[in-house]
Hints:
The structure holds two protein chains of two kinds. Chain A is mainly alpha-helical. Chain A is 47% helix and 10% strand. Chain A has one domain. A two-stranded antiparallel ribbon of chain A has the order 1-2. In chain A, α1 runs antiparallel to α5 and α2 crosses α5 (87-95). Chain B has helices spanning 11-23, 132-143, 164-178, 200-212, 256-260, 300-318, 373-390; strands spanning 2-7, 29-35, 39-41, 60-62, 71-75, 78-82, 87-90, 95-97, 100-103, 107-109, 126-127, 148-154, 185-190, 215-218, 223-227, 232-235, 240-242, 245-249, 252-254, 285-287, 331-338, 341-347, 356-360, 364-368. The structure holds flavin-adenine dinucleotide.
Amino acid sequence: MTTATINGSEVHVDAEGFLTDYDEWTEELAQVLAANIGIELTDEHWDVIRFLREDFPRQGETATIRRTSTVGGFDTKRLFVLFPKKPAKKMAYIAGLPKPRGCV
Amino acid sequence: MKRLLILGGGTAGTMAANRLRKRLDRAEWEITVVDQNEAHVYQPGNLFVPFGIYEPNDLVKPRRRFLPEGVELVLGEIDRVEPEDNRVVLADERVLAYDYLIIATGTSPRPDQTPGMLGPQWRKSIHEFYTLEGATALADTLADWQGGRMVVHIVDMPIKCPVAPLEFTFLADAFFTERAMRDRVELVFVTPLDGAFTKPIASKHLGGILEERGVSLESDFMVERIDADAKTLVSFDEREVPFDLLVTIPLNMGADYVARSGLGDDLNYVPVDKQTLLAKGYDNIFALGDASDIPTSKAGSVAHFSIELFEDNFISHIHGRPMTKLFDGHANCFIESGHGKGMLIDFNYDTEPLPGKYPLPGFGPFSLLRESEANHWGKMTFRWVYWNLLLTGKEMPFEPLMSMAGKEVEVHA
Ligand SMILES: Cc1cc2nc3c(=O)[nH]c(=O)nc-3n(C[C@H](O)[C@H](O)[C@H](O)COP(=O)(O)OP(=O)(O)OC[C@H]3O[C@@H](n4cnc5c(N)ncnc54)[C@H](O)[C@@H]3O)c2cc1C
């Protein structure tokens, strides 16, 4: 595990730059992470990010696209517009959560 | 008299019934298995049916034959579990009470979950091979297919036997080559993953083989719907993949009664402790095989390795002792690669598939992540092993926990 300095604060990240400590995330950090991947956060983005942040401690893992849609009530098509191409990965990255599994 | 009730008499339920019947006192414990039908299908064989390598009849045997004396088989569809009353209700309203419950009803393909999949083209130009009926219908189509664009497609992960779609693609390439029509077939592999497979090193090896075989890869593709008239897959981000013949792996889901009983997650899998397989929030319900949410492959090998440990844990648990045989997610899958060769991968929760030899370091006879004829014969022999050793719990020369011996680890300087 390595550390990175984002927006002046030192945080723990994995090889792909995903935050590894739930509690190191802040809303300001999310702005910077989003900017890193070319996304400017709107209220609609924030609704999704907040759902992921709230869901994670309950589930112990990052919500998949399917869960974000069935449990969070977000439209899958919109998720692809808000977080183009790889929404699952991008949402997790900005929310400071591990990459969702589903892939085993 | 106490009752152990096992829901599902497939791979996992049958293994558990055999192993626990030997361990539980007959005067004290009744064991009952419930399944909706009498036909036990050797599912790994479905892969070979479309190419005429196996006939459907080769793959089905009566369930009862693999359950030992002293285990009752009840045929009926499970409607719900009522965990607060420790009972299960069947669709015909029969009620079965239990002291301990094992959920082993697996996972199944659900074409109804993708708009446009079921319809006039279903089993005509839109096929699947995860069920025996599907594999048989596809064999009929392939027998006189004249060529065109064949798209192999995965709706979403997880699916049982996650290597099966790749194997199908390799076998299709070999099948068309042998029929001297490979030049009339365009092969495309469409996946929601960002590469050929889930784990990076295996994904690179397997992606390399796709490329070698002239198969194009369409990754990060999340299907929204199928336009059956236009014969096109449409993704949520509005990409389109046209096909002449589609072989899809529909969304895989656990049984609906699991959700109805409040025991499932959003794909009807039972959340369990990944080391003991005890259902979260319950002290007398376990989930074995594909039915649980453990983060490893849904495969017969996983069911086998985990049940070998579960057997001891279950005995400890009913006597109020801690469960100490902790499962590591060990999976071991042969990957048929066509032309009489195969590969093998061996991994667990923490270690991704690596190249090397298995089970004996340096010797094998099986090669990890590399093609060999021995791997192919391993896969073909497995059908015999399944019916004669695996289901009934006979000794096998493989260890339940994964070993690093024989694996090649790249050392980063
Ligand atoms: C094409 C294909 C290839 C595969 N290849 C391999 C391979 O090479 N190696 C490998 O290790 N694994 C392979 N697998 C996976 C393997 O077959 C499964 O992982 C294994 O069978 C899981 O066992 P299980 O007992 O959990 O589920 P199953 O064996 O599917 O058993 C579930 C049982 O529950 C019953 N059931 C379900 N719902 C109900 C209900 N409501 N009421 C009553 N009964 C119900 C079903 O009838 C069934 O008998 C393959 C699978 C497929 C489809």
